[in-house]
From TrEMBL:
Keywords: Heme, Iron, Membrane, Metal-binding, Monooxygenase, Oxidoreductase, Transmembrane, Transmembrane helix
Positions bound to heme: C401
Required cofactor(s): heme
Name of the protein in question: Uncharacterized protein
Length: 456
């Protein structure tokens, strides 16, 4: 399906219509239009924001503070997790408050920095063990590190096995797939695509896995009465009074964190590294900065990151060119009628911000397709990702990504470690292919394979 502007080019709400229908027989075209109408043109169909001002109406609008819960999300119990719980309720507010004052608070993010750096060091050791000028499949390496990190933040352990990886992958596949049942209620009950069946099977596995970890925490708490090591399980177990959670709600909340935190960070780093391999001059400039601030005699420390201004610009530019959630994947739902960019939007409409389109709009970003970290060099003091909605890869408003600071506190030092220790080069005969694939996140269609050459 092609995207077609609904009336004039100043209309920033986009409806999806099958433009390709003109090439089809009239009967088939008519059928497609009817199906498209059923799918999209009802309240509950999508409205898209393509400009910062309409994005603002959606992201900051009180009407759009909920999310549509897809069948797969409900099947995986995510309606009880932070990302899909209705924002009007105490439950969602309590989750935001509790996570915001513990795992995602600046104090906790800073306190866990040494553990993140250690995970980064282990990643470098594994790469070095592969030998001089090793050919590296980056996706595997980055995904493993990211999963280790999220396991540490959420469960207080870096231990994970293939079962966890498989569960995360299955969850992504289920949430990312187009499910006819989300649009045609009859099909929902028939479950022709097997979404509900697969969700039930996945939830059983997740339940066993997460409850085992919760039990271990309860044991540890009883034996050591240790309030110090505040991972997210400890935090949730410690809730009292009205905030106290049932164990099945805890499973949903903890599982969502693993699910959301793992791929986003790994995908962003894979895009950054692809750009580093393609733009060797930019890589060299970042390494010059590292040599000036860190030198070659010691490992990168957390304190160094503040001085690595160019490296942070590289991260911003990658978030602009390859936003991992290009449609701010977690859409918003209008809980009552609203106006967006002067248009009436009825209650029940799914609203999406096309951050990819905004970040590639030549009226907003000169030469939008050029990868130029320097464009952010003048932005002293601002993190430049979220404030003015020209670049809001973590969303904005009351449902903004709570993991933003944690994600950046992971990506910056790991990128510094990777560039400090190795030169990254293409492998002869293997192209760095920037084709995109939109699943739950926008990932590289062809995983990055490159060569890591120790710098000293
Ligand atoms: C590069 C990394 C990441 C990107 C690009 C990203 C992006 C996003 C986006 C676009 C949203 C929707 C925001 C909105 O509707 O305004 C979101 C929501 C969310 N993210 Fe992230 N995210 C990242 C990392 C993380 C991490 C590391 C965690 C946790 C460990 C996390 C947890 C969440 C949660 C729980 C929500 C739902 C919040 C709510 O609805 O109240 N994210 N993220």
């Amino acid at each position: 399906m092609d995207a077609t502007l609904s009336s004039t080019t100043h209309d920033y709400l986009l409806l999806l219509l099958p433009a390709s229908a003109t090439f089809l027989s009239p009967l088939l075209a008519a059928l497609l239009v009817v199906v498209a109408s059923l799918l999209w043109l009802f309240p509950g169909g999508p409205a898209w924001a393509l400009r910062p001002d309409t994005a603002r109406d959606i992201l900051y609008g009180a009407a759009f503070a909920d999310r549509p819960v897809k069948d797969a999300a409900r099947g995986m119990l995510f309606h009880r997790a932070m990302g899909f719980a209705p924002s009007g309720g105490d439950y969602w507010r309590a989750l935001r408050r509790v996570s915001g004052s513990h795992v995602f608070s600046p104090r906790c993010v800073a306190a866990s920095a040494p553990r993140r750096r250690a995970i980064g060091e282990r990643m470098l050791e594994r790469l070095a063990a592969d030998g001089e000028e090793a050919v590296v499949g980056m996706r595997r390496v980055l995904h493993a590190a990211s999963l280790e990190h999220v396991m540490d933040t959420v469960f207080g352990t870096t231990r994970y096995d293939e079962e966890v990886e498989a569960m995360v992958k299955e969850g992504y596949d289920l949430l990312g797939m187009f499910n006819w049942g989300d649009h045609l209620p009859l099909l929902k009950w028939l479950d022709l695509q097997g979404v509900r069946r697969r969700c039930r099977a996945l939830v059983r596995r997740v339940d066993v896995f997460v409850r085992t970890i919760i039990d271990e925490h309860k044991q540890r708490k009883r034996s050591a009465d240790d309030d110090e090591n505040g991972d997210f399980v400890d935090v949730l177990l410690g809730l009292q009074g009205e905030d106290k959670m049932t164990e099945s709600d805890m499973v949903a909340v903890l599982w969502e964190m693993i699910f959301r935190g793992t791929d986003t960070v790994a995908i962003l780093l894979e895009w950054i590294m692809a750009r580093m391999v393609l733009h060797r001059d930019i890589q060299a400039k970042a390494q010059e900065e590292l040599d000036a601030i860190v030198g070659r005699g010691r490992a990168v420390s957390d304190a160094d990151v503040a001085g690595l201004r160019y490296l942070r610009c590289i991260v911003k530019e990658t978030l602009r060119v390859h936003p991992p959630g290009p449609l701010l994947s977690w859409a918003r739902l209008a809980v009552h009628d609203a106006r967006v960019g002067g248009h009436h939007v009825p209650a029940g409409t799914t609203a999406m911000v096309n951050m990819w389109a905004i970040a590639h709009d030549p009226e907003i970003w000169p030469e939008p397709d050029a990868f130029r970290p320097e464009r952010f060099a003048g932005e002293e003091g601002s993190d430049g990702v979220g404030g003015d909605l020209r670049l809001a890869p973590f969303g904005a408003g009351r449902r903004v990504c709570p993991g933003k600071a944690l994600a950046l506190a992971t990506v910056h030092p790991w990128l510094a470690q990777l560039l400090h220790r190795f030169d990254w080069e293409p492998v002869a005969g293997v192209d760095v292919d920037l084709s995109e694939r939109l699943n739950m996140s926008l990932e590289m269609e062809k995983p990055l394979v490159c060569r890591a050459k120790p710098r000293w």
